[in-house]
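This section describes the prediction task in plain terms. A model, or a person checking by hand, is given the sequence of a single protein chain and must write out its three-dimensional structure as a string of tokens. No templates, partner chains or ligands are provided. The sample shown here is typical of the held-out split.
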Amino acid sequence: MKHKVIVTFAVLALPFVGGGLIGYNIGHSTSRQEAPAEPAASFDGSAQPALFTQADRDTVTAQVGDSRRNAITRTVASVSPAVVGINVIELRTYRQWNPWGDDPFFRQFFGDQTYVEKIPSLGSGFIISPDGYILTNDHVAGNAKEITVTLTGGDKYKAEVVGTDLISDIALLKIDGKNLPYVRLGKSDDVVIGEWVIAFGNPFGLFDISDKPTVTVGVVSAVDMNLRGQEGRVYRGMIQTDAAINSGNSGGPLVNSLGEVIGVNAVIYTPNQGSIGLGFAIPINRVKSIVGELKKNGKIEREFWTGLEIQGVDQRIARYFGLEKAEGVIISDVKRGSPAEKAGLKVGDIIVAINGERVADDHTMVSIINDYKVGDQLSVRVLREKRNIDLNLRLEKRPS
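The expected answer:
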């Protein structure tokens, strides 16, 4: 009889004990993701302590859809105060129509009929330090004469351009402030295709109406996307997302579900003038080193030269050299005393890769090289006499 009582008690108690242990584990697992905010990443991109383990990241991702208040809503609440709306005024000079065209005879009497017009535009940005440094796109604020930054809540500040870089499409602004909310810069080299991301910004100037950013949610669609350059800008290694990005979102942060900025919204593909789920962000790892140099020097020194003259490999050249594909560029001239000559490059060499990246044609090569700056060293793989040779090309400042 006593034996039966003990067995019965054990059977009844087992569910309660098991449930308690499971609840304890869930509670402690959830609490791990509430990591305290760390200082923003340094401008030079130096290493900082990891805030989340891989297990933490997976746990947060799994919880995105568990309830109304989840990883995404918490990220929106924590990041929004550091997102800003940017209104700029550009001065553009226009030449009036002249019925005599550029005829020098009439120009001596009437001169150049030009006028200057103030052009307003807008974009987004985000604060990266408590003393008021702000990241945005060069195409948002790079040519601005007047910049007004609006914080969440409606406070407005006049901003100055600390530095800007057309090639990378990054601009660094500064407002006078103390103890401002700021974001945490993450790492873009461990972005997972398919993970949740949030795009913050000021689409169509809605920030001016509500004094707060709007958010859209999607996933990382692809990484390492190389886009065709636009107006001298180089977009390489981009993060693609289907989180809706519209006009005015440029310069805003793309954030993962942990609240870390992984990219700067920059490019949208809009054949119908609206979002179709093709947006691209500049990877934050690329941005960090650029910001450090902009803060220090106000610009990125890109006035380098190689001393090379090249042309694309066409079918005729490919047949002559016995190539399987018409890819790469062939060197047609090497200037005496140039970085190319110092590197050992020769006329007739076919450049097939730079820093491990395949060179498809002359446009690809120009795009790759333009992404670097004075002092950078490139590993150039060439095909010479049917053998692959790796040479080191150091970019030098263009002689005056």
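For orientation: The chain has four domains: 1-31, 76-80+184-297, 83-174, 304-397.
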